[in-house]
Amino acid sequence: TDSDGRKRFRLDLREGSTEFLPGLPTATWGANGTYLGPTLRARRGDRVAVDVTNHLPERTSVHWHGMHLPAEMDGGPHNPIDRNATWQPYWTIAQPAATLWYHPHLHQTTAQHVYRGVAGLFIVDDPATDALPLPKQYGVDDVPLVIQDKKIKDDGTLDTSKMNFGGLTITGLLGDKILVNGTYDPHFEVKTELVRFRLLNGSNARIFHVGFADDREFQLVAADSGLLGAPQPLNRLLLSPGERAEIVVRFAPGDDVVMKSFPPPLKANFAYARLAGGDDEHDLVKFVAAGTLRPSPALPATLAPQPPAPQPTGDPFRLTMGDFTFNGRTMEMQRLDRVVGTGTVERWEIVNSQLIPHNFHVHGSSFHVVDVDGEAPPAHLRGVKDTVYVAPNSTVNLAVSFLPYSDARYPYMFHCHLLAHEDSGMMGQFVTV
Ligand code: C2O
Ligand code: CU
Ligand code: CU
User: Fold this and answer.
1) Taking phi first (over 0 means left), then psi (-120 to 50 degrees means alpha), and beta for anything else, what does residue 252 get?
2) Domains of the chain
């Protein structure tokens, strides 16, 4: 806590070297370390500030994905941090408990900077839900899993060649090595009956379909923007880049089971599904449970009280996804694509009329998925979210609740979170006034 009563964090972005594969150092970037960054954590009502210092060889930015804050503090393309400069955003945490994350967001270099390793989690706690009997011992039964794919060349360097297209890539570079929390081939020792995992798909392009090798059921307890009203039983969870989910998994003594990514149902045609990783299967983490497990309290039947379904006003705003465009236009730093009323709810209709998979993320808001192709959203899309998969030839309807911060000068972004698409211009800007 600083002299102004703010909780102060520090992120030093620097170059480093990480041995993902034994004996083969890889040049990486990180925050306060060589790859990825620390998990930041604050409570609803806290006033926070961050000193972000850029020791990287080029300018970057740090965006607080999913955080409810004024546009000027959002860390998007309009908040560049020059080499050796320090950026000092500050805000008040004003949202329910959620698993958020931070990552660079400069126009046209987001893919490179995230891929090299600048990213981390930001966990928000809320006194209103603190008492819920959910697993909460960080690193023991409340475990973050940042899932990313990488392509590592024989000399140990990261392959970034197809990062922004070329060759047979439609969604960007897909790697064959899976890292979880920056570790290749990870395992985790389970000590409690229930474990809560905070999953983040921190990949540039790869879409994961998370489940267990033995198909065991798990409970979805939170979506991107916070806890659900009640746990939802699932045995597969589709997670596109930028999406988070919290799940609770039951283990038995002596269990030996792998969390996997199964071929994701991308709903693309045969060729495009293959090119976008739709046939791929990966082991994510191996779990080994102790011979005796510490008992966990039973999962509560209800979690967080859900606010009434937001009622959009005004005409729907329709965004059609094209060849790395929205409504036929690529991102322009000086062009506004939408003006939104501060604190209003709008219906946004996201239309993917292409053969290529996309997803959609909006800053300065959270949203409910109203329907997907006219049908009620599946269980994993029922919570409050900020990022959603948009399959080829499909339309996703959102009720977007905008924040009460008004600023006519600094815009918020909306974009495809497949980072090669975003960098190619599949992004737009809006202000709330
Ligand atoms: Cu995760 Cu606009 O970003
Ligand atoms: Cu964001
Ligand atoms: Cu896209």
Assistant:
1) beta
2) 7-125 (2.60.40.420), 142-294 (2.60.40.420), 317-432 (2.60.40.420)
